[in-house]
Amino acid sequence: MAQDHAALPSKAADITPTPVRPGIDLQINGEAFHHTGDPEMPLLWYLRDVLRLNGTKYGGEHGEGGADLVLVNGKATSAISVTMSKLADKKITTVEGLTDRKGAGLHPLQQAFIDEDAIGCGYCTPGWLIASMDLLNRVKDPSDNDIDTLPNLCRCGCQTRVRKAVKRAAAAMKQGAKA
Amino acid sequence: MSGQVKLSRRRFLQVLAGTAGALIVGIRTVRAATAQTPPDMLGDALYDMGVYVRVDADGTVLIGTRDPETGTGVATSLARIIADEMDADWQRVRVLPLGLGVADDNGKPRWLYGQQVGGTGNSMPRAWRDLRSAGALARWLLIRAAVPQLGVPPEQLRTEQGAVIAPDGRRIGYGELAAAAAKIALPPGPISLKTPDRYTLIGKPAGDIDARAIVTGQTPYTFDQHFGEMLVAVLAHCPWPDGQLTGLDSSAALAIKGVVKVIELKPDPKLPPGQTVIAPAVAVIAENTWVALQGQRALKLTWKPGASGSESTAALEQQASALLDSDAAPTTRVRDDGDVDKAKRKAARRVEATYYQPWLAHAASEPMNCLVRLDKTSATLYVPTQSPQQAWTVVQRLTGFAPDQIDIRVPRIGGGYGRRLDHDYVAEAVLLAKEVDKPLQLFWPRDEDLTHDFYRSGSVHKFSAIIDAKRHVLAWNQRVASASALTNRGVPSDHVWTSEVSANQLPAGLVPNYRSDWFGLASSLPRGPHRGMPDVTNAFAVGSFIDEIAHSLKEDPLVTQLRLIGEPRLVPLQGGGAIDTARLINVLKLVADRINWKDWLHSVNGLGIACWHTGGAYVAHAIEVSMQGEKLTIERVVCAVDVGRVINPMGLEGQVAGATLDALSTALNLAITVKDGKVQQSTWKDYQLASMAQLPRTVEVITVPGEGDPAGASFLAMPTVAPALANAVFRVSAVRVRRLPLMKELLRLL
């Protein structure tokens, strides 16, 4: 049977190539990536060891502390707790992707962190930015109680300054939306 | 680089002409013995050099900073001190962290930049003494380079924002002058430094120089560095530092694709702690982190405990209490003013209390890690170290290389807190790199970090005071027991107490009969330098005890505090210097005013206060708390600091607020406990830093403007937090918490 088919000239409309393409397609900071390695590799090590996108930090094995947060389809997610196998066709944003690529300018949230000096050693800062971005995506004008829900830990004690920065960013984003 | 100017040893700065017409100024560093040299005279006793300032032809000024940046803002402040002195345009300044400056002096290391240490509170004082000269010389040379073009003698020229300016307003940018400046003969004698009225950057707020890179994820920490073909090593350490590996089955680990090697490591018992492997360990070396982690988990290991296998923090505390209750002589009588025993007979009132503080880990955010590339004649390392010189010592011993064959680079560090003054992880990285022919990155997962630290010892503080009829503290007797962080570290046994207590801590010098005894505990648990020690533990006991004295006298604790401090005066410190009680009273009154201390008696919330002095700086905290049932809310925190001249007010405020929150987090929640020699906390869930919700919503920081030489602020705001908090909690709940962490004890007592 197969030989019979092969003998027939195929019509253009019959050719629907479906190449076997092992691996996982995903989008990171707007770029397409294709992972063909261990599907059980946590996203954190894919970002850091494979792509050398080092903004996302290791904090601990279970993601408590939030240094390893990234946005997966807009939602803050621990990069060490999610494996590549769960990320097919997902859109991921890391701290490197927060910058407005069109204008190459800082996001108002990043600017607010600078303006409020919401930085200690800076190691956990990317995680705070991602968690705050997730919060601002959900709540345009976050209250102190909303800000209290940020899951991050910081040994340098930047929390009071992060609180100010999130409020400042919310105000700037509102202003930006009006303009 | 060409045209190196030969200088006599009497000259203090060296000038080089760089490529493409750059001016490079280095500074000779101060000998320790000349630390008291007036700044204007710098130069007469200086002997070495390293590159600090580079002015490029395009006007860019590159400033090298020598001390590791652990997040205290030191790189920003060091650069601004130099930039201000040379009147550089801050917008055109780039800051470059210098690696370890080491030269080969007949096989011995010669430190090119003097001491290079971060996060110990002395970067600013050291910089103030010597780094300003680098800026001053650059400015002196640039002015003289402008003379031929402007046709005006140097005395009539001034500098501003990266340009030399003539009286008629003509200006030449530094970039255009750099090449000519590099050819000018050095000044014959010392040149004067700017007077404070001409500062343009010092005293003005500045954000962290790395801020933009940090918020865009572009700042490389050591853990973000890599070399081509780098392998990754993940370790599993023995639960007991003095234990042994008795069984190793690495077959499952080696079967994982990408695992390269499994290597056993052992501490060298001849070396001091912090210079060798911290505990017996097995390392899995693999092609990437994920594979190495899987390999480590696949190891089948059997360990046998050593002597520490019978230790527990509970037993150590019992040992401490028994010692303090006994008549045994102290390990060291730290200070003994007047006659405490005689004063007891005049007692109108006697107050006694005992305080208990837990063991603590460092818990730095960036994991313990190190990157090494070894070849036959050189070692290149990226190290997150607070002391590159100590790291060098460890590398040199293991490689046998000449001093300048070892290149140690120190990127920004994800927190130090004293953990990175030890270099066990550097020893591990070098030992492992010698076993493979590729560069190697060492990585400790979080559980290895929390369970294998050089901990801060727990301590017991037994205090008694004699109060006379006029409410004056006539005698103060404090007995402290802890395991010294300095044991076996090459420190004479009669000095190991210095990591645990100081002879000058409050109220020493303020009370006529004062005795401070320290009792050393025997423990095999590793100990090391810890942020804010030896101040933090004693400040909690002292600050709480003063509050207890006030309660016993039925009076406002601020009144008791102020009576204890007495008149504004200089109280000499042992070993030189003095406490300026006027500055101490000032910070105390500032926080009291801000928090409305006059409401202390009637407020439904609890108010607590404490003050301290350390390293020539003064600090006070006032804290307001409320309680609803078992829920403690920190309503307000006010902190006042007096550090002398403030280099960067924004940086100082951040550092003070940050240290306050760190100290709150520690006082509220943190303890390391050990059972059967094993540390019981291995994740952030077990060692719970305070969450956003648990911490106050703001920290009000008051900085006292000062004229004196700047003191360090890295941990200044820590000591007074726990006592002010416990005092406030007592006020609101009538429960006196004498044991930290506070939340656990408060819930037990309620």
Fold and architecture overview:
The complex is a heterodimer of chains A (179) and B (750). Chain A is of the alpha+beta class. Chain A has one domain: Beta-grasp domain (Ubiquitin-like (UB roll), Roll). Chain A is built from 6 helices and 5 strands, in the order αββαβββαααα. A 5-stranded mixed β-sheet of chain A has the order 2-1-5-3-4, with helices on one face. In chain A, a hairpin with a 2-residue loop joins strand 1 and strand 2. In chain A, helix 3 packs across helix 6. The longest helix of chain A is centred in the C-terminal third of the chain and has 20 residues. Chain A starts with a helix and ends with a helix. The mean pLDDT of chain A is 91. Chain B is of the alpha+beta class and 750 residues long. Chain B folds into 3 domains: 201 residues, Aldehyde Oxidoreductase, domain 4; 162 residues, Aldehyde oxidase/xanthine dehydrogenase, molybdopterin binding domain (Aldehyde Oxidoreductase, domain 4); 343 residues, Aldehyde Oxidoreductase, domain 4. Helix content of chain B is 26%, strand content 24%. Chain B has 18 helices and 32 strands. In chain B, the strands form 9 sheets. A 7-stranded mixed β-sheet of chain B has the order 13-14-11-21-18-19-20. In chain B, strands 1-2-3-4-5 form a 5-stranded mixed β-sheet. A 5-stranded mixed β-sheet of chain B has the order 16-24-23-22-17. The longest helix of chain B is centred in the C-terminal third of the chain and has 21 residues. The chains are: A alpha+beta (179), B alpha+beta (750). The interface between A and B is large, with 59 and 60 residues.
Helix content of chain A: 25-40%
Average per-residue pLDDT of chain B, rounded, comes to 91
In the CATH hierarchy, what is the class of the largest domain in chain B? Alpha Beta
How many strands in all of chain A?
5
Could you say which overall geometry of chain A the principal axes of the C-alpha atoms support? elongated
Low-confidence stretches of chain B: 1-12, 27-50
Report the sheet-strand fraction of chain A. 5-15%
Give the N-terminus to C-terminus distance of chain B in angstroms.
Answer: 71 Å
Major β-sheet strand ordering of chain B: 13-14-11-21-18-19-20
Number of distinct helices of chain A: 6
Task: From the 3D structure, determine the CATH topology of the largest domain in chain B.
Answer: Aldehyde Oxidoreductase, domain 4
CATH architecture of the largest domain in chain B: 2-Layer Sandwich
Structure classification of chain A: alpha+beta
State the strand order across the main sheet of chain A: 2-1-5-3-4
Count the E strands of chain B: 32
- Please identify the structural class of chain B as seen in this structure: alpha+beta
Largest sheet of chain A at a glance?
5 strands, mixed
What string gives the helices and strands of chain A in order?
HEEHEEEHHHH
What's the pLDDT, averaged over the residues of chain A?
A: 91
Q: Give the chain pair forming the largest contact, with residue counts.
A: A-B, 59 and 60 residues
